Amino acid sequence: MRFLKGHGTENDFVILPDPDGVVDVSAALVAQICDRRAGIGADGVLRVVRTKQSPEVAEQASAAEWFMDYRNSDGSVAEMCGNGTRVFARYLIDAGLENATEFGVATRGGVRRVRVEDNGDIAVDMGKPVVLGESVAYVGGVEYPGVHVNVGNPHLACAIGDPVAQLDLNHQPGFDPGVYPAGVNIELFNPVGTSRAVMRVFERGSGETRSCGTGAVATAVAAARLSGDTLGTWTIEVLGGTLTVTLDEDTSYLAGPAVLVARGELLLAE
Ligand SMILES: N[C@@H](CCC[C@H](N)C(=O)O)C(=O)O
């Protein structure tokens, strides 16, 4: 099977082109591919399938020719991946599968419109984030209150007083399973002024990653609430680079670099 490797602010993905939807990507195979020693190594897998060949999203086929079948590195399925959508778009353009500067991508969370910006970055319309209340995360025995935000997938974005650089995110942070029965992506951030935040993230199904697009949107929402606002443009600094999040009245946008770094032949099999 052919594969490519790409990343968006170092949130890295193995891309598996499967236009006719014939490849059975089991959780075990995904975990093997994402293994950083025994596999290629990645935070997740993006299978590229024609939307009309994908029964679970076939109703999106009129708005998006290609379905991003996203899997976390442990093989679990997620509804949405912001950086994944941007890297997926980069692949479609590079492979000549999309020629316009704006097009739709089908995801389990619905169609997302992507746009190639003048500087080459890729922006994605992430939809309107939904604030569902508040909850708490526990890291290293410390309780951090945060905002429960749904960006297609579940997030808990916590502004913290301690520098995020000092956190030990080698272990799963605690959270309330009553609030998040299907697990949660946890962002810990330091607001810097009125339009910038420094963020780290522990992703559901992948552990600590160097960036998370949906997490950046959730962080912008939580940071904006703290500054007494709900709209505006936020710079979110992550371990792997810088993302820009714009919160509009009706939707939100995530922008940043998305690059392909390798292509090859996958020899792994179950
Ligand atoms: N890294 C992604 C989010 C991937 C999915 C997440 N781990 C989940 O299980 O919801 C992003 O860039 O948004």
Automatic annotation (TrEMBL):
Similarity comment text for this entry: Belongs to the diaminopimelate epimerase family.
Gene encoding the protein: dapF
Sorted UniProt keywords: Amino-acid biosynthesis, Cytoplasm, Isomerase, Lysine biosynthesis
Segment forming the signal sequence: none
Name the record gives this protein: Diaminopimelate epimerase
GO cellular component: cytosol
Membrane spanning residue stretches: none
Subunit structure as annotated in this protein's UniProt entry: Homodimer.
Active site: C81, C81 (proton donor), C212 (proton acceptor)
Function, in words: Catalyzes the stereoinversion of LL-2,6-diaminopimelate (L,L-DAP) to meso-diaminopimelate (meso-DAP), a precursor of L-lysine and an essential component of the bacterial peptidoglycan.
Residues involved in substrate binding: N11, N72, G82, N83, N153, N185, E203, R204, G213, T214
Cited Pfam families: DAP_epimerase (PF01678)
HAMAP family the record matches: DAP_epimerase
Catalytic activity: (2S,6S)-2,6-diaminopimelate = meso-2,6-diaminopimelate
Pathway assignment: Amino-acid biosynthesis; L-lysine biosynthesis via DAP pathway; DL-2,6-diaminopimelate from LL-2,6-diaminopimelate: step 1/1
InterPro entries (alphabetical): DAP_epimerase_AS (IPR018510), DAP_epimerase_DapF (IPR001653)
Subcellular location: Cytoplasm
